[in-house]
Each structure stands twice: as structure tokens, then as C-alpha cells.
């Protein structure tokens, strides 16, 4: 299986790179959002469907026995190995012509993340990981932050209209009580890769979907970050909560926000 996974990993890198170039060429100009609004701050662009269809076709042609799941089309094919794609993560940024968005493709073997590729073409960044082989940014190995004091930590928290305001305020208040600096960047996948490479010391999102995290989970693991058991706790079939953190502040942050780690 190792050789089979390596073939898939190399193929995924090429396919996502092509898909990211497509998305970049279709990006709207700066200004008000050019997209359909599904709900509060939840957007859908023409590019989302085009990129997902492109990746689905390419992966089916290369590995017809594999399953496939996308944000827009749902679980289209089943298999012991399953590709999970978020065609544009950070759509609110993308729809306004901003740079902080990415194309994300993860590979699951059952309920185990085994490979991930995340390309942010406007930032010229590619994150990759294959289980057991390390995590990389533009070909250079990455590791989670060495921060040990929450008072010097930078923590991002994702926002969703599906989270009641009191719950959101409670969690962000807990981050502030630790003395950490809060951030919000509009892309869950890129926030998780920021934790993996040490640009952030933690990321919290109360309600997040599998396609947002599938590629990032293996990148985080290979980079030495600690992560809550998202897949075990229901993330395979529906939305779940995720906490990803640098190991040196993991216990303090987990206790403060009330999200257990794996």
C-alpha cells in the first residue's frame, strides 16, 4: 500500500496544482463579493463547482477504484481510499479578489488521513504531507511552533453563523484570558497549515466540515502539532469541532477552551 499511496500523493500534487492555476485564472477582481450567498458569510462562486468537477474527473481517471467526496457534490463515489476536496477554502476572501484562499485535497484510508495537498496560488504556497514522511511548505520541512507560554501565543478562531454568539464569545474570551493574541483570517485550511508551520500557535473552530480539514489533518500530524480527535468525534459524517495547537501550549489551551485533544 505504501507504493500505491506514494503514486496517489504525487498525482494529487500535480492535479491540485493544475486546479489551483484554474482557480487563480477565474478569481474575481477586488471589490464587493462576486458570488451567490448561501447564508450569512457563506459564499458560492462559479469557480467552486468548476474546480471540484475538474479534480473529480482527474482523480477518477487516474484511480477509478477510489472514493470521492466534495464540498459541493457530496460523497460521489465510495472506496477504501477516499479523496476529499474543498475546491475553494476561504471563498469569502476569494470572492472579493483577496489572496488568502486555497485548493485542498486530502486522502483518507478508512478513517485515517494519509495524504494531503493544499495549494494557495495567490500566496505562492504549497503544503504537502504523506503519512510517515513529514510535512512540507514549498518543499521545505515544517514543524509546529515551539511556543510554551500562552501569553506569547497567537491563536486564530474561525467564525460560523452555525455557532451561537454566546458560545463563540465564551471561547474567544477564554483565549483572551490566557493572554494569547486572537486572529481571524477567513480560511480554516490555511489557519491549520499556519499551525503546522508555526505561524500560528493554535486554531479553533466550533463547527467545521471534513472537506475543510481532510488535507490539513495529516499535515498537522506530520508537523508535530496536537489536534483534537475530529474524525473520531463525528467529523467523518458531519460537522465537528477542531482544535489544533502547538505542543507547548496544548494542555493549557485545551483546558481553557474546553476542547479535549487526542
Automatic annotation (TrEMBL):
<keyword id="KW-0460">Magnesium</keyword>
<feature type="binding site">
    <location>
        <position position="71"/>
    </location>
    <ligand>
        <name>Mg(2+)</name>
    </ligand>
</feature>
<dbReference type="InterPro" id="IPR020550">
    <property type="entry name" value="Inositol_monophosphatase_CS"/>
</dbReference>
<keyword id="KW-0479">Metal-binding</keyword>
<feature type="binding site">
    <location>
        <position position="86"/>
    </location>
    <ligand>
        <name>Mg(2+)</name>
    </ligand>
</feature>
<dbReference type="GO" id="GO:0046872">
    <property type="term" value="F:metal ion binding"/>
</dbReference>
<dbReference type="GO" id="GO:0007165">
    <property type="term" value="P:signal transduction"/>
</dbReference>
<dbReference type="GO" id="GO:0046854">
    <property type="term" value="P:phosphatidylinositol phosphate biosynthetic process"/>
</dbReference>
<dbReference type="GO" id="GO:0008934">
    <property type="term" value="F:inositol monophosphate 1-phosphatase activity"/>
</dbReference>
<protein>
    <submittedName>
        <fullName>Inositol monophosphatase</fullName>
    </submittedName>
</protein>
<feature type="binding site">
    <location>
        <position position="89"/>
    </location>
    <ligand>
        <name>Mg(2+)</name>
    </ligand>
</feature>
<dbReference type="InterPro" id="IPR020583">
    <property type="entry name" value="Inositol_monoP_metal-BS"/>
</dbReference>
<dbReference type="InterPro" id="IPR000760">
    <property type="entry name" value="Inositol_monophosphatase-like"/>
</dbReference>
<keyword id="KW-0378">Hydrolase</keyword>
<feature type="binding site">
    <location>
        <position position="212"/>
    </location>
    <ligand>
        <name>Mg(2+)</name>
    </ligand>
</feature>
<comment type="similarity">
    <text>Belongs to the inositol monophosphatase superfamily.</text>
</comment>
<dbReference type="Pfam" id="PF00459">
    <property type="entry name" value="Inositol_P"/>
</dbReference>
<dbReference type="GO" id="GO:0006020">
    <property type="term" value="P:inositol metabolic process"/>
</dbReference>
<feature type="binding site">
    <location>
        <position position="88"/>
    </location>
    <ligand>
        <name>Mg(2+)</name>
    </ligand>
</feature>
Amino acid at each position: 500500500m505504501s507504493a500505491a499511496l506514494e503514486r496517489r500523493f504525487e498525482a494529487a500534487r500535480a492535479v491540485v496544482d493544475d486546479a489551483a492555476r484554474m482557480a487563480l485564472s477565474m478569481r474575481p477582481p477586488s471589490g464587493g463579493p462576486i458570488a451567490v450567498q448561501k447564508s450569512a458569510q457563506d459564499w458560492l462562486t462559479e469557480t467552486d463547482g468548476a474546480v471540484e468537477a475538474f479534480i473529480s474527473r482527474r482523480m477518477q481517471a487516474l484511480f477509478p477504484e477510489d472514493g470521492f467526496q466534495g464540498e459541493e457534490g457530496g460523497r460521489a463515489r465510495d472506496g477504501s481510499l477516499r479523496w476529499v476536496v474543498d475546491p475553494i477554502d476561504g471563498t469569502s476572501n476569494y470572492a472579493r479578489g483577496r489572496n488568502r484562499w486555497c485548493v485542498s485535497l486530502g486522502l483518507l484510508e478508512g478513517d485515517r488521513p494519509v495524504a494531503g495537498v493544499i495549494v494557495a496560488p495567490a500566496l505562492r504556497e504549497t503544503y504537502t504531507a504523506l503519512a510517515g514522511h513529514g510535512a512540507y511548505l514549498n518543499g521545505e520541512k515544517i514543524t509546529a511552533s515551539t511556543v510554551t507560554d500562552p501569553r506569547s501565543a497567537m491563536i486564530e478562531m474561525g467564525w460560523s453563523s452555525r455557532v451561537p454568539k454566546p458560545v463563540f464569545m465564551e471561547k474567544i474570551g477564554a483565549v483572551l484570558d490566557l493572554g494569547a493574541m486572537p486572529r481571524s483570517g477567513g480560511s480554516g485550511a490555511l489557519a491549520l497549515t499556519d499551525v503546522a508551520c508555526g505561524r500560528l500557535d493554535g486554531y479553533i473552530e466550533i463547527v467545521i466540515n471534513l472537506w475543510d480539514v481532510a488535507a490539513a489533518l495529516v499535515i498537522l500530524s506530520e508537523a508535530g502539532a496536537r489536534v483534537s480527535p475530529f474524525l473520531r468525534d463525528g467529523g467523518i459524517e458531519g460537522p465537528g469541532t477542531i482544535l489544533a495547537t502547538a505542543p507547548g501550549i496544548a494542555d493549557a489551551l485545551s483546558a481553557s477552551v474546553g476542547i479535549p485533544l487526542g
